[in-house]
Inverse folding.
């Protein structure tokens, strides 16, 4: 049997193995004002810079199409001819200075006094229609033909008015949905007339395209 001192030494060794060493104190014993290790570490960390706010860009405004320099000048009305004559007679260079006076002067004119301005109006109408006809012919010669449409578009154009009459106030998207549902419900034989229209338009488009290409040579 072990004596008292041996038993005491064995128990002490067992306790040291099971329990282990005591934990170190949270505060340093060298200074009463020392911070805990975790607090000291966090105090030395630098703050992360704040993330810059992302501002959504405003969508760019669509640009207006450039004016066609070859397009004829619009018609000049009888009142516009009178306005120019009135401004010249009274030495007025700014439109804002004309005011209501020119309108009152035009209203006070007799039919005989307006005759010369109405004649200028008719002459300018002839000029405009002549220039417009030439412009459209030249534009047609330089513009390729329009492509043919698929069968569904012929069906849609034919039935759009019927759908609107049957459903007053319906939106365009709803018209398209109803027309699409009606188209899908048709049999192949019911779709055939619109298929034929599309085929005829395609043949015509190819002929016009070939003629257009020949003109460009």
């Amino acid at each position: 049997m072990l004596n008292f001192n041996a038993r005491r030494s064995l128990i002490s060794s067992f306790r040291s193995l099971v329990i282990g060493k005591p934990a170190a104190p949270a505060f340093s014993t060298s200074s009463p004002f020392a911070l805990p290790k975790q607090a000291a570490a966090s105090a030395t960390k630098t703050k992360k810079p704040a993330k810059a706010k992302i501002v959504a860009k405003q969508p760019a405004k669509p640009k207006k199409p450039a004016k066609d320099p070859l397009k004829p000048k619009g018609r000049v009305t009888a009142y516009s001819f009178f306005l120019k004559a009135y401004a010249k007679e009274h030495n007025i260079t700014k439109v804002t200075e004309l005011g209501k006076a020119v309108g009152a002067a035009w209203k006070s004119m007799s039919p005989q006094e307006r005759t010369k301005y109405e004649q200028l109006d008719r002459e300018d109408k002839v000029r405009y229609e002549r220039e417009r006809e030439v412009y459209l012919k030249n534009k047609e010669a330089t513009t390729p033909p329009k492509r043919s449409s698929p069968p569904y578009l012929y069906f849609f154009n034919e039935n759009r008015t019927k759908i609107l009459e049957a459903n007053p106030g319906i939106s365009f998207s709803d018209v398209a949905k109803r027309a699409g549902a009606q188209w899908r419900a048709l049999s192949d034989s019911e779709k055939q007339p619109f298929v034929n229209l599309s085929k005829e338009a395609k043949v015509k488009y190819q002929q016009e395209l070939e003629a257009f290409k020949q003109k460009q040579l």
Residues 4 and 108 are 139 Å apart (CA to CA). The chain has eight helices and no strands.
